[in-house]
Amino acid sequence: MKITEKAAYLKGLADGLEIDNTTKEGKLIAALVDMVDALAKKVNELDGDVQELNDYCEELDEDLGEVEEYLCEEDECDCCEDCECDGDCDECDCEGDCDECDCGCDCEETYEIECPKCGDTICFDESVDPEDLICPACGAKVALTAEE
C-alpha cells in the first residue's frame, strides 16, 4: 500500500468515527489527518523526483564510463614518445613510468620524498631545484640532504 493510500485510509477511518469538528479534540484530529494527507502527497512527489535523479545519475555514469574507456584506450607510453612504441615494444617496458624505462629515450627521471611536516609524498623531476622544494600539501619548505 502506497503512502497516499494509507493517508486516504486514515482519513476514511476518521470520517467513519463521525468526530465533531467543533470540539478541540475534533479540530486536532481533523488537522492531523489533513497534515498526514499533505505529507503523503509531498513524499510521493519527492519519490518521483528521486527516481528521476537516480535515472539521470545512471545515464551520467554510463556516459562517464564511455569517456573513461575512450581516454584509457590510449596505452601510449607518454615518456617514450621518441621510440613510438605504444608502451608494448621490446625496447620499452616502462608503460608510462619513467623510472622503469629501458628504451633509450631521454626521459626525465622523477623523484619522490616524504614531507617531514605533513607526511605527504612529494614528486618532482630534475627540472626542480632541490633547494627550492616546497610541499604542495602544506606549503612547508623541504630541505634535502645530499643522500636524498
If you had to describe this structure to a student in words, what would you say it looks like?
- The protein has about 150 residues and is mainly alpha-helical.
- The chain contains 2 helices and 2 strands; from the N terminus they run H-H-E-E.
- It has helices at about 5-15, 25-70; strands at about 110-115, 120-125.
- It has a two-stranded antiparallel sheet.
- A hairpin with a 6-residue loop joins strand 1 and strand 2 (about 120-125).
- Helix 1 packs antiparallel against helix 2 (about 25-70).
Per-chain topology:
Elements lengths: L2 H14 L7 H49 L37 E5 L6 E5 L23
Antiparallel strand pairs: 1-2
Helix pairs in contact: 1-2
Mean pLDDT: 78
Show unreliable segments.
95-106
What's the alpha carbon Rg, rounded to whole Å? Answer: 33 Å
Give a quick account of the main beta sheet: strands, pairing sense, barrel closure: 2 strands, antiparallel
The helix count comes to: 2
DSSP summary, beta strand count: 2
End-to-end Cα distance, whole Å, is 69 Å
Strand content: 5-15%
Shape: elongated
Spatial order of the strands in the main sheet?
A: 1-2
| H/E topology pattern | HHEE
Class inferred from helices and paired strands: mainly alpha
**What share of the residues lie within helices?**
40-55%
Oligomer: single chain
